[in-house]
């Protein structure tokens, strides 16, 4: 059998890239408009949280808005845990480095400027902690910088694997258990930032509708995952 010509390989490669661009564009439109991908496919209930409500850039919960926290003083660490270094969702082809983030001057959680990077909220438990919600945040898109790596959360499914590599070389394995669309103003009270209760990983990004005259995205997409060694 003869080998494919270089021209055929080029066409195949361009076709694959085009399909990827189309899929990304569809997901972004859904995220901005608050269409089916931004709400109709929500599922599950986050472990240890109260009633789910409806997700703007995540706000800091009341107990973390003190001047001490805003200055970036260290929160206590639990024994046997380590800061995250990377986040992977294999089925969604999501791979991102993780940067520790704190509280911005406006009282909201800092988010890395690079949309291909995500931020671990360092006042939340480290991955592998025995209780509480480990919070990782990221952009769905960024003006002048392109699509965000967490845009893919619009296509998340129950049971998807989530892998968090740690700076000490360890790895914590999770499975997605819920996806919720929560109003920006309701996020702090949603249980996403709790430090007690069942140990979970919470991934947060923006969700539509996008209203420029009202500050941008009106909701957050909150995906919860539980530890699952296999």
Automatic annotation (TrEMBL):
Segments crossing the lipid bilayer: none
Tree of life domain: Bacteria
Extent of Polar residues compositional bias: 46-57, 79-88
Keyword Cell wall biogenesis/degradation annotated: no
Pfam family, one: Sortase
UniProtKB keywords: Hydrolase
Region: Disordered, residue numbers: 42-91
InterPro entries reported for this sequence: Sortase (IPR005754), Sortase_dom-sf (IPR023365), Sortase_F (IPR042001)
Record's protein name: Class F sortase
Species name: Streptomyces gilvifuscus
Lineage: Bacteria, Bacillati, Actinomycetota, Actinomycetes, Kitasatosporales
